[in-house]
Design goal:
The complex is a heterodimer of chains A (150) and B (368). With 150 residues, chain A is of the alpha/beta class. Chain A has four helices and four strands, in the order βαβαβαβα. A four-stranded parallel β-sheet of chain A has the order 2-1-3-4, with helices on both faces. With 368 residues, chain B is α/β, with parallel strands linked by helices. The chains are: A alpha/beta (150), B alpha/beta (368).
Chain lengths: 150, 368
């Protein structure tokens, strides 16, 4: 889960780095489709394939944020489509809690996104990444990037 | 419909001892879980009693908690409980036990829940210092019945200071003394009624100052809680202040061990995931130039907030157990409350209410 620092980056041209935790059955396949369909999207995203969005413990989201990732995207199947019946609903609640915790402690919950993206929605995946990059550019760099304490 | 009963005996301890003994002797329960004075008379500790003759000095009024009775009551129900036990619980302990039941860590089927009025408690060490002083001893009953904090020299734990429930709800019976001239038993559920039925105690009307006093206490506490949590949020709503607050953490994990709700046998933070290989530590140190050791302290606290915040009953056992005296119970109260608001959930309020993390709807929380 280490987020590598990019070389030669100045504060002026801030390029957010996003850790994406995508479900194997829908969102990861959707991201793959975006690639095979040659749909362009910003290269700010680092994808980690997980078996289900419901397997994403909030700890993984927090770890990424505390390590300095500017955003975390969790992608799951649409309502009713979860391969494991209800993992996506569980993820939605967990993300709502994680965002609230981050908000309360000054870490900006808007850095964490949860989206339903199906295997056929390569275009939606690309669009989501574009939107997220735009919003993160507005929010600015994650203040945890330069902190070493705790 | 609640009914009040007068107990036989002199002081509140004799009254209580007599009543608890009767519960055992009449075989209404097989065992009693109650705080009692130790032989030295310097400390009050939880005891499990089956022999009525050993019920000599029960005292759930003494303002001290060493281990949450919710944890202990849950242990009494582990693995197909056969025995019926009356368990004496303060309101935070009742709420924690209800959460434990929802988490499938307790079985309330064979427990007689006896709630106890509580105005707050102090840490065991602070209690031991003043407990043998006879004057203080006398005073806390009298001040307590007037709804005043019973100890002059020691402040209550911060969680108690902002507790909204001096009289516990969701119980079968209640040991009532706030606003009462003497210790009374109040039956509040059919199971409680049944337990009291054969004891032939004198029924009395609700003491007139009680309802008003409890109402006043709840209103004062609510105001204080809102103010305290607001101040806390304002101060620690920035990550710098949060890190400053948590910096003295020594990673002993006492908070999670003392928490009645943290039920994992092995916390993920104490397992192999966080036993990092040396090359990982060096790589992380190389990336930033520096890392704090041990790693992941902030991650531990924030993860615990995510895992437990929706069920936190604000009992403050975490803070009482913290050797660095971090205000963790305020952190959990302040953040936990905002998590619970998402699901309109109040931990321990109702046994039928669904646990936020174990339930979900097809349509909710939109937009994401």
């Amino acid at each position: 889960m280490a987020v590598e620092r990019e070389e030669g980056q100045s504060p002026g041209d801030f390029e957010p780095r996003i850790v994406a935790l995508l479900c194997n059955w829908c969102s990861y396949t959707g991201a793959d489709l975006a690639g095979t369909s040659r749909i362009q999207y910003p290269p700010n995203i680092r994808v980690i394939r997980v078996m289900c969005s419901g397997s994403v413990d909030p700890m993984y989201i927090l770890k990424a944020i505390l390590e300095g990732a500017d955003g975390v995207l969790i992608g799951g199947c649409h309502a009713g489509d979860c391969h494991y019946i209800n993992g996506n609903y569980k993820a939605r609640r967990r993300v709502a809690i994680a965002r609230r915790v981050l908000d309360q402690l000054g870490l900006d919950g808007r850095r964490v996104w949860f989206r339903f993206i199906s295997a056929s929605e390569g275009r939606l995946f690309a669009e989501t990444v574009r939107e997220m990059v735009a919003q993160l550019k507005e929010i600015g760099p994650n203040p945890m990037r330069d902190r070493w304490e705790l | 419909m609640s009914r009040f009963f007068r107990l036989d005996g002199e002081g509140y301890r004799e009254k209580l001892a007599g009543w608890l003994r009767a519960l055992l002797e009449r075989e209404i329960v097989d065992a009693v879980l109650s705080p009692q004075w130790t032989t030295s008379g310097r400390m009050v500790v939880p005891t499990l009693v089956r022999d009525p003759r050993r019920l000599t000095t029960p005292d759930p009024v003494a303002p001290v908690v060493s281990v949450s009775a919710a944890t202990l009551a849950a242990r009494l129900t582990f693995n197909q409980p056969q025995e019926r036990a009356a368990v004496l619980l303060r309101s935070c302990e009742v709420r924690a036990l209800v959460e434990l039941e929802k988490l499938e860590q307790a079985d309330l089927g064979r427990l007689l829940l006896v709630g106890v009025d509580c105005l707050g408690t102090v840490k065991p060490a602070a209690f031991a210092e003043c407990a043998s002083d006879e004057e203080i001893h006398q005073a806390w009953w009298q001040r307590g019945t007037r709804g005043e904090w019973p100890l002059e020299t020691v402040e209550p734990r911060s969680a108690c200071d902002i507790c909204l429930y001096p009289a516990p709800g969701g119980v079968d019976l209640r040991l009532a003394w706030i606003g009462c001239p003497e210790l009374l038993v109040e039956s509040v559920s059919p199971r409680g009624e049944q337990a009291m039925a054969s004891l032939e105690l004198e029924e009395v009307p609700e003491p007139s100052p009680r309802a008003q006093l409890l109402g006043q206490l709840a209103a004062d506490r609510r105001q204080r809680r809102e103010r305290t949590l607001e101040e806390f949020r304002a101060r620690h709503g920035q990550v710098d202040h949060l890190m400053e607050m948590l910096a003295p953490c020594i990673r002993c994990y006492n908070c999670r061990r003392a928490c009645p709700l943290c039920y994992c046998h092995e916390c993920v933070f104490e397992g192999p995931i966080f036993r990092h290989p040396s090359q990982h530590l060096h790589r992380w140190a190389a990336r930033r130039g520096i890392i704090e050791m041990p790693t992941d302290t902030l991650l531990f606290h924030l993860t615990r907030l995510n895992h437990m915040g929706s069920s936190c009953v604000s009992c403050g056992m975490c803070e009482a157990a913290c050797p660095s005296q971090l205000p963790v119970s305020l952190l959990f109260a302040a953040v936990g409350e905002t998590i619970q608001q998402i699901f309109d959930y109040e931990p321990g309020r109702d046994r039928e209410e669904e646990l936020p993390l174990a339930t979900f709807r097809e349509e909710e929380l939109e937009p994401r």
